[in-house]
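Problem 12. The chain below contains 183 residues. Write out its predicted structure in token notation.
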Amino acid sequence: MSRTTPTPTPTPTATSTVAAATTARVRVFAMMDADGDQVVTRHDYLSRIDRTVLATGRTEDDPLVVAARAEGLKAWGEMDADGDGKLTFDEYNAWVGADKFDNICRFALGALFDLADADGDGALDKAEFTTLRTALNNPPGNAAAAFDALDTDGDGRVGRDAYLASIRAYIVGDSSPMGEVLY
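Solution.
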């Protein structure tokens, strides 16, 4: 006699986390889709680096620009697993998650953060943060609100680790005050 293992019924918390993650991913995908055609192309994704370089006034030979381009190419190569130069929402949603964030996205996003960190102290002030996030296609008002949500101690600075942790939380469906106002 064969026994089947019953499929667990999702708990309300698990269901709400999945729904929150899906909502977050829809918003992040839309932000990456620079031309709004429902597909993130290689150009869409890598143009984020171009816009950040331009917004921060860095030059192509700057080691931080070189690092950001290398991390961006690595991330794109992982996301575009079939190598067709395009990423649909379904492909992105199936790919992204905590593991991918921790091992791929964190480095690409951290490199962009570093571009905006003018004095290299590991933190952004509101102007630097807004410059970065608007270069990444977020409206300036949303970027300013996201900064305020992250600056919990009111010192006028947002650290790299807190920034990346907030993006990670948002993409996996956990509470992220920054994510809720940014996208």
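Discussion. The CA atoms of residues 11 and 31 lie 30 Å apart. Students who got a different answer should revisit the alignment rule from Section 12.3.
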